[in-house]
Amino acid sequence: MAGFSDDIPFFDDDDATPVPAKSQGGGGLAARAMAARKPSGNMPDYLAGLNPEQRLAVETTEGPVLVLAGAGTGKTRVLTTRIAHILSTNRAYPSQILAVTFTNKAAREMKTRIGHFVGEAIEGMPWLGTFHSIGVKMLRRHAELAGLKSGFTILDTDDVIRLLKQIIQAEGLDDKRWPARQFANMIDSWKNKAQGPKDISEGDARAFGNGKGRELYYAYQARLQTLNACDFGDLLLHPIRIFRENPDVLREYHQKFRYILVDEYQDTNVAQYMWLRLLAQRPGGERPNVCCVGDDDQSIYGWRGAEVDNILRFEKDFSNATVIKLERNYRSTAHILGAAAHLIAHNEGRLGKTLFTDHPNPDDGLVQVHAAWDSEEEARAIGEEIEQYQRKGHNLNDMAILVRASFQMREFEDRFVTLGLNYRVIGGPRFYERQEIRDAMAYFRVVAQGADDLAFERIINVPKRGLGEATIRQVHDAARARNTPMLQAAAELAESDELKPKARASLRQVSANFHRWQELLENTPHTELAEMILDESGYTDMWKNDKSAEAPGRLDNLKELIRSMEEYESLRSFLEHVALVMDAEQQEDLDAVSIMTLHSAKGLEFETVFLPGWEEGLFPHQRALDEGGRSGLEEERRLAYVGLTRAKKNLHLWFVSNRRIHGLWQSTIPSRFIDELPEAHVEVAEGGGNSYGGYGVGDRRNPYGSSRFDKVESFSNTYATPGWQRAQKNKTEATSRNWGNRSGHAVERIGYGEVDSGFGAGRGSVKPRTIEGELVAKSVASAPSPFSVGDRVFHIKFGNGNISNIEGNKLTVDFDKAGQKRVLDSFVQPA
DNA sequence: GATATACTAATTTTT
DNA sequence: TTAGTATATC
């Protein structure tokens, strides 16, 4: 693992200027990259496969460059080739290139790819990493300028919340009324905007804790200082302050970094932007060699403080910038690109790119839109489609399900478990966030950093040692009173008479243990020490004695933890790595379907992509609409665009009519994004297609099946809309073709029919241009809604209610029991 | 001080 | 629905 180990000399090649191209350069990477050139001809190998725009982006090494790279246009390739080019032409040494990515995954991938160009000596790129990892590296170097000691700890969200809870309580506030979690989010967003306690607006300051927001923020920062700790935001804010207050330090970095590259520029927030600008902008009008690569259409982290405007500002901040657009897409079929382009064109304020492909293929299929009755059926049908692809020889590794919200994953997991289909959840609950891992890490942290009170508090009574709330409080107070770490206070308390004998003995034992481990720290192999700590503390035994079902798994995880420590040279470097890289690497050797959120899918590609849950309220997410207004909607649309452009060949969209949210059934209507897809590239998958089946023989029965069927049957007799007729038709086809008249199956079919028809009915004035229009044309000539405001209607799930508004086929109904809902007219009948 | 039960709340995305 | 927290009880 190429972590940022401390043994890399800081200003190694500082004053050296590599010999410019042509003449043979010094040894190391550059020489190896030179060797990668073709023996004959002038063009180096690595440039050969690039298209003209890509090549321009690679070869324009001097001055500011903004690369607007659409999805699948070879963005990463440009970045890595550019670095290879800089190295091989001896423009800079590896250590003089600052390359910043947004995620650890991207950093890793760049390292690997550069490794291919220049040999395996990747550690020669010490300044390639995420904003945060590079920020830490700088901060460790200059910690004292931020009032910290170099060994400071990095707190994760969990630590921060526990700390804030203490602070809120200490301020005499009710921590139920003023949740620490919420305040942590507020602080995070302030820090994303590079605002310290003194900078936040009066309104923000008053919004929390009875107007004590600012005081709490101050108290929090003060507490971090005494704990010798940082949160994530500080990893950037401290360096920014250091640069501003110490021009000499900044100058050193200016001299050091000859080339700066930034990936995913559209995702940078204000703090990152300021950090970057400080490093890039040179005094005296010198043009910095800064290259930012991004795609405004893929900006999906606005909620986390990302500013798309940073892209727009680039040309203002860096005069005479070269702007290069990459629009030639190598990933997707023309239909997929067409669908994505049409969708994203609904956004305003874009820089305006249009993806195109050089290789249109007439055999490519259209984008498919499917409907299902509920999320359970959605999961079942997608599972069957996946099995079909599999039977046709596709690898599961080439397929992915991308969801809007992680709760959607569960249904797929359940289904795939029963099917015995391999799957892999990406970005789910993370290894390092598991309780046992965090406990173990807390032990290690206290050993490595005795002042880490948060870690100490976490495990002081884990496993149970008879040190309850009262004792902990006492230790805590003693530490605060004497201004010492809790571990030290505990040791002192244990020697005094202030505690009951039992607690005293226990406390004495704990602090003696930690003392012993700390003394072993320098001279014991760290994995050995780690094992010793977990054994002697009784932590391993705690899980061995635990009879719950998860206990063996937790023990396995602990073993895995120790094993993963072997890759690091010390306990400290391991702790640092974990703080920054919360994800554990996935094993790729298994053939499995990937399940992940749309956010974590950015940057990935799959041959076949399923996008379930395209319903109003879920996607676009209601909260994005409520809190973000139009810009919130546009970000959701960009998220949809990201989803569509992940697919290389096959793309399936799904929506359902009923979804259970918070345990309550909600009737849902199709996402407006489906309406925004172009007819030419999209088709509606028919319910009767071979991709849906009912229940296989011996399958578990749908628990809702029978009752739903009964109700549907009963109202079918009186219902006579076109939609219903269509449903009937489908039902008959299905029943006769497949498993006869098994009720459960027929019910599923009805679901399809209803959705399709309801979707399309009404809105008589619109030409059938969109998917919706197509459905209208397919089902029946459009008919006006058979209802009028005030009608009393019955709905399968919600019962009776009165119609309060009608928009085309979408009714707003005040249900007697379920409250106001928006439903499709085909789902209700006159009461 | 530990455990069990009851209740509540909150349900997006994450470096 | 579930997960996480607060309270009551042993």
UniProtKB/TrEMBL annotation:
All residue ranges annotated as the UvrD-like helicase C-terminal domain in the record: 334-603
Ranges where the UvrD-like helicase ATP-binding domain occurs: 48-333
GO molecular-function term, one example from the UniProt record: 3'-5' DNA helicase activity
Catalytic activities: Couples ATP hydrolysis with the unwinding of duplex DNA by translocating in the 3'-5' direction; ATP + H2O = ADP + phosphate + H(+)
EC number: 5.6.2.4
Residues annotated for ATP binding in this entry: 69-76
Record keywords, A-Z: ATP-binding, DNA-binding, Helicase, Hydrolase, Isomerase, Nucleotide-binding
GO cellular component: cytosol; DNA helicase complex
Source organism, top-level taxon: Bacteria
GO biological process per UniProt: recombinational repair
Family: Belongs to the helicase family. UvrD subfamily.
Biological role: Has both ATPase and helicase activities. Unwinds DNA duplexes with 3' to 5' polarity with respect to the bound strand and initiates unwinding most effectively when a single-stranded region is present. Involved in the post-incision events of nucleotide excision repair and methyl-directed mismatch repair.
Listed name of the protein: DNA 3'-5' helicase
